[in-house]
Amino acid sequence: MVTDIPATTNASFGREVVVYESPQPSAGIHRLVFVLFQQLGRDTVISPQLRHNFNSRNFAENNNLTPVAAAYVNCQRERELQKVIFDTRACHSDTSMAETEKRRR
Fold it and tell me: Domains in the chain, start-ordered, CATH in brackets?
């Protein structure tokens, strides 16, 4: 988390209060939201203690922040995705895949 970014610059000019941690989904698809807040004053932003059960609405209210943009991302462990693709291919013989292609034409 980066705070105190001057409006005419980028995040490298701000103050890092929480180090970025890349997504590490353990199983299934995880939904991530990246939110850009406008800091309404030069008050010190109190960094969250835990990532678990983080409430962005409460965080914004407690720190006098207004959301101005958001990006939504889905991510999944690569091994799980490869396993799903492999399992799907294993369910079909070459003959049945060829028959399916003929029907599509």
Answer: 2-76 (3.90.280.10)
